[in-house]
């Protein structure tokens, strides 16, 4: 008698962007699919994101006159990671990102398009961030769940992965799942796709693999405990870049809402609580969290003006902050200093130095180039920010087909991974992170894994 209560052809663990895309791709091959989600509603890490995906060589880019392709994207990934990432995964993402995104647009009617508000920056040499303007990652994951419902894909909510079973040859046979009432079910599967989150909420794992984040607030999904990763390791799976993560220096305090990057890219700057600048705000979107954490109290102020506010006002995060009346305002630098409690002389000096460098068309003392986006001018706005860990970027080692690899480099026959469960391409730490790479990995590897799992079942 089988130890499994029932068996499904394709079992997907995790119902965020990666799991939903994988399920839709597998179902399109004709395979029956079941998805398992630990939460009681769709969301996860995808729901906390801006819902943006990098893709190179898309129709939307071409319509905006932007020349981009997989080779350029691959080069950008490798350059940002200083060559310290897996070129196989990097090439998989670069070569499949546009196909995955346009499949979602054409087949599943996702209204994604190039978001031109996001300049080419932070390692992306081209504008390649795609999204649904005015909407967030929560809208994205809800949209994908509606499409799974249309496709008749079963999703078990409030169901947690607690074990993975393999035969003597390492072929995955099934899993143990814990339901909301604590009952354990054993479910067999022909193929298993691990699309759960990373391990940012697992303090023991983050302390072990990325001890420099101990001082950072965690602003990721609380369900990201890394079960898919460590359960696979018990079966002999390899992991990579476990010290890799996305940090962020612009989590508003106390609102807990992210200031969107275009606020800086359009000319905003960051000062510490004394009013002094301490970094080039346009160099490293993830690594900037560390110079901020070294400032007094680990706090800073994002300074911008009415021009920048107008250009970014429709971005959901800034719109939410404005609705909460979170920005401090000042008609002059002195007025803003009084509103924020910073030293007026320091703040005036920081603003005037940036303005002088912009007017002279030279790099400022932080090395920032102001040629395309001038620094703020009165009247000013300011948001208090702190640094945070958003999500991990290390995980299970996969090949170009999203198959999980063993420590000896051989692939598991029927085990796939993507999203937060898989190794991404940000290198060993935070400085290799490209904007939107979390969702890029989720969507692209989800699409690759779903198609491959479905084809394996049909074979």
Count of all domains: 2
Radius of gyration: 22 Å
Distance between the termini: 26 Å
Under the CATH scheme, the architecture of the largest domain is 3-Layer(bba) Sandwich
What is the helical fraction, as a range of percent?
25-40%
Mean pLDDT: 96
Query: How does the major sheet shape up?
Result: 8 strands, mixed
What does this structure look like?
By secondary structure, this protein is an alpha/beta fold. The protein has two domains: 305 residues, 3-Layer(bba) Sandwich (FAD/NAD(P)-binding domain), CATH 3.50.50; 144 residues, Flavocytochrome C3, Chain A, domain 1 (Alpha-Beta Complex). Helices cover 34% and strands 21% of the residues. It is built from 15 helices and 19 strands. Strands 1, 2, 6, 7, 8, 9, 18 and 19 form an eight-stranded mixed β-sheet that branches. Strands 10, 12, 13, 14, 15 and 16 form a six-stranded mixed β-sheet that branches. It has a three-stranded antiparallel β-sheet with strand order 3-5-4. A hairpin with a 5-residue loop joins β18 and β19. The longest helix is centred in the first third of the chain and has 22 residues. 55% of the residues are buried.
Can I get a quick summary?
The protein has 15 helices and 19 strands. The chain has 459 residues and is α/β, with parallel strands linked by helices.
What's the layout of helices and strands?
Layout: E1 6-13, H1 17-28, E2 33-36, H2 44-47, E3 53-54, H3 59-63, H4 70-80, H5 87-108, E4 113-114, E5 129-131, H6 137-150, E6 154-156, E7 160-166, E8 172-178, E9 184-194, H7 203-209, E10 217-218, H8 227-234, E11 239-240, E12 245-252, H9 262-265, E13 269-272, H10 289-293, E14 299-305, H11 306-312, H12 316-323, E15 328-330, H13 333-340, H14 344-360, E16 380-392, E17 395-396, E18 403-405, E19 411-417, H15 437-458
Parallel strand pairs: 1-2, 1-9, 2-6, 9-19, 10-16
Antiparallel strand pairs: 3-5, 4-5, 7-8, 8-9, 11-17, 12-16, 13-14, 14-16, 15-16, 18-19
Helix pairs in contact: 1-6, 1-15, 4-5, 5-15, 13-14
